[in-house]
């Protein structure tokens, strides 16, 4: 049974049919928002007020892709910790653990978000590694 929505409700919208989001599909958020319902279109669809970031999308969504948004209050959950942000540089120490007969050495890594066009470079690197291994 679908929840009853009304104008002014805050909702989250499923990213199931969004095909222009960045990053790997399995790492994306399942829902985005919250958005405010500005109009009900029958019982099966809602029109939401999109943010500037999402303005390229059509603002009407079927209710099957929308769920109610419940704002959490920090005072109700004092022990809940927020996710810390990733450091700019991550230290990787030396380890004697063997992985495919290789040892890990001390290196410095940039956070993935700090690398411009990181996804593009990573895809090219992986493609080059695949061709190297296929020729051996």
TrEMBL record:
<dbReference type="InterPro" id="IPR056924">
    <property type="entry name" value="SH3_Tf2-1"/>
</dbReference>
<feature type="domain" description="Tf2-1-like SH3-like">
    <location>
        <begin position="8"/>
        <end position="69"/>
    </location>
</feature>
<protein>
    <recommendedName>
        <fullName>Tf2-1-like SH3-like domain-containing protein</fullName>
    </recommendedName>
</protein>
<dbReference type="Pfam" id="PF24626">
    <property type="entry name" value="SH3_Tf2-1"/>
</dbReference>
């Amino acid at each position: 049974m679908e929840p009853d929505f009304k104008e002014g409700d805050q909702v989250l919208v499923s990213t199931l049919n969004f095909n222009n989001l960045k990053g790997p599909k399995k790492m994306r958020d399942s829902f985005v928002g919250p958005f405010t319902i500005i109009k009900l279109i029958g019982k099966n669809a809602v029109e939401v007020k999109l943010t500037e970031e999402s303005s390229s999308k059509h603002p009407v969504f079927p209710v099957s892709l929308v769920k109610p948004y419940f704002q959490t209050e920090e005072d109700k959950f004092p022990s809940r910790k927020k996710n810390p942000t990733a450091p700019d540089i991550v230290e990787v120490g030396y380890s004697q653990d063997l992985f495919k007969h290789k040892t890990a050495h001390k290196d410095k890594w940039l956070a993935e978000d700090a690398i411009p066009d990181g996804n593009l470079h990573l895809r090219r690197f992986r493609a080059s590694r695949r061709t190297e291994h296929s020729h051996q």
